[in-house]
């Protein structure tokens, strides 16, 4: 068989190396879920914080193992270490700067990274000082060697759903909206802590014309998604995997959408899906069985995200590569996910369009042409 016939008959799928070169967009990534292990070790030494291992590779393995264990306690323990060492201005600046660098190195051109300011005040920082340190880190880490930005990073401020500080954090997000904070989020255990507990914060944000997303439909089912959208007015859904529960398949493979699923699709409500993380937490049985396959086919506004790059040992490129392997996605699919994400970002519409038309489409066109 000649090379020519192989090239002519086999349509080659994007490889991980090629995907890394594509201009990508990330909407759901936790700052405390992505520090470099060497940085955690350095910062732990400064603070006298005891880690499960002092070796970067072993520590990385420990994080992934704990996240994979199926034990919520062990999963939460991982954040006790990352959050535990991110308690000074220097630590926050460093972690945020490295986050921007790592995302840019992965080919991400626009990212929204989130964290909960209230978790970083143990060392004596005020909420405003926490926000300013992280913004400074993103600014430093976004610049290339020539001083030109390699990536644009927007911040989402998260309130913890089991705490009662959401109004304060929402006010903080509005206070810093013109200098890099682009939105608000709530995260934490879904069961027992419905988003409606924080209704005053969401109503305040709506009155301020501010944007927010809500972690919903990950561990907990449709009521959580319904509340997030219809009571709280969320612009986007963090995960939203369980919207799958409102879709029934007939014997001949036809999908029937319930009213909530139809609403989410018809209103083009973005789903911030995080395939590897969802498998680790049991929200999906495997990548191949992840609802993202069905939701993409049904044209929901699906986006692909990392959630916690350290715990899931992942990157946007790796998430894409796993989906290519599981579902046979080609460059058009990957561009579709990317444009979906950029359309769903919380920065002004003209700036989203400039990235779509000036960076994303030309970047994918170049890769498709080479493939
Ligand atoms: Zn998350």
Biggest sheet layout: 8 strands, parallel
- Strand proportion: 5-15%
Apparent shape: globular
The helical percent reads: 40-55%
Small molecules bound in the structure, each named once? zinc ion
Enzyme class: hydrolase
Protein name: Adenosine deaminase
Binding site for Zn(2+): 28, 30, 215, 307
Keywords: Hydrolase, Metal-binding, Nucleotide metabolism, Zinc
Detailed description of the structure:
- It is a single chain.
- This protein has 371 residues and is an alpha/beta fold.
- The chain has one domain (15-35, 86-370): TIM Barrel (Alpha-Beta Barrel), CATH 3.20.20.
- 49% of the residues lie in helices and 14% in strands.
- It is built from 16 helices and ten strands.
- It has helices at 3-9, 16-21, 37-47, 56-68, 72-85, 89-105, 127-142, 166-175, 199-207, 222-231, 259-266, 275-280, 292-297, 316-327, 331-343, 349-370; strands at residues 24-30, 108-115, 152-160, 181-187, 212-216, 236-239, 247-249, 255-257, 271-273, 302-304.
- The strands form two sheets. Strands 1-2-3-4-5-6-9-10 form an eight-stranded parallel β-sheet, sandwiched between helices. The protein has a two-stranded antiparallel ribbon with strand order 7-8.
- α8 (166-175) packs parallel to α9 (199-207).
- The structure holds zinc ion (ZN).
- Residues 28, 30, 187, 215, 238, 307 line the site of zinc ion.
- Residues 23-361 form the Adenosine deaminase domain.
- Its cofactor is Zn(2+).
What are its keywords?
371 residues; two-stranded antiparallel sheet; EC 3.5.4.4; hydrolase; eight-stranded parallel beta sheet; alpha/beta; binds zinc ion; 14% strand; Metal_Hydrolase; 49% helix
